[in-house]
Amino acid sequence: MAKSTIKDLDLKGKRVFIRVDFNVPVSNGVVSDDNRIVSALPTINYALEQGAKVILASHRGRPKGEGFEEEYSMKPIYLRLKNEFGENVFYTEKVIGEEVVSKSLDLKEGQILLIENLRFEKGEKKSDLEFAKELRKLADLYVNDAFGTCHRKDASVYVLPTLFDKPVAGFLVEKEIHYFETILANPEKPYVAILGGAKVSDKIPVIENLINKVDSILIGGAMAYTFLKARDIEIGKSILEMDMVELAGELMKKADKKGVKILLPVDHVITDKIEDGKVEITLDEKIPEGFMGVDIGPETIVKYKEELKDAKTVVWNGPMGIFEIDRFSAGTVAIANAIAESECTSIIGGGDSAAAVRKAGVFEKISHVSTGGGASLEYLAGKKLPGIEVLADK
Q1: What is the DSSP letter of 121?
Q2: Residue 79 pLDDT
Q3: Residue 121 C-beta-side C-alpha neighbours within 13 Å
Q4: Any idea which residues carry the catalytic annotation?
Q5: Do 18 and 135 fall into the same domain?
Q6: Order of strands, sheet of 261-263, starting from the edge strand that comes earlier in the sequence
Q7: CATH number, domain at 97?
Q8: pLDDT tens-digit series, residues 323-380
Q9: What is the pTM of this model?
Q10: Are residues 164 and 194 in the same domain?
């Protein structure tokens, strides 16, 4: 599915609405992780170089949708952008209205206007056409570079693009489409998927889709305990989705019939309580009563690394344990290193997995680290993303 990109537009002298994903963490009024801002810079810089007048719009957090809320303001993002673009970036405390339109019309070529949090207006989350029409007044052209929101039908992502003759993708969205559609549609084999995180229920559509494509699936994180339970293996007081046990069993049978290996942990790092608890390593896949699994064990690491050694394509979504706590992070870090050391095309599905490769110090060695956790899950489940579907085809 080839989509038109910002390079297919004549930007000179035009007001260009770029939907970005600047939903970034802020601490004491300062952006504490600017990865999403940095990821959007190639598109923004290209537009400026071509003589565009850029209007940047994003949501941040989950405000009530009833007007300005200091906690979710875009002011810290404005300050970060000033470091990048100096006096050429402006900011408005409003999202829509005559004042914002006037500021957009006052922009000179090579200048930027950052508008306030889109979700301060209730119309954004409600896919409201009238709200989208107000945003339409701000620009002549539309670019979506917010992959992390493309699985939603928010007004700025799904409705607004339809009000332009040729809505296009920015470089970041173009790159995401390339990896998720081009690479995963025809992956080089062996193709290995690694799935972790807390919930089996979040990953069911993904597993069902991947069973038809991959050679093996390595399962870790809390979701592994539901799969182990489905094999009648004791899991102590580990996290369990009881209502998913039967389905986990069915998925393993389905994979078996397709000749797809589903690998589960053969040992675990366990503790009796997360904070200041006793930490042990099991001798096998069973977890004793009173203990919970918090990471894959050393034998599992060896087994999973062996499976990854000859892989040509690897997709990873979800950590192997509670990696935010150092003593429970060895499995996740080992998997990140194994992927980085292999010669595979590697795609990391955003969210915690992206944080994990950063923690392991191998971010730069990964082929593609997605900027959208939820959006990448939808892609891996074989679903179409609304925000991409509405963009113009090549």
Answers
A1: B
A2: 97
A3: 24
A4: 36, 199, 351, 374
A5: yes
A6: 261-263, 216-219, 191-195, 313-317, 345-348, 368-369
A7: 3.40.50.1260
A8: 999 999 999 999 999 999 999 999 998 778 888 898 899 999 999 999 888 899 898 9
A9: 0.89
A10: no
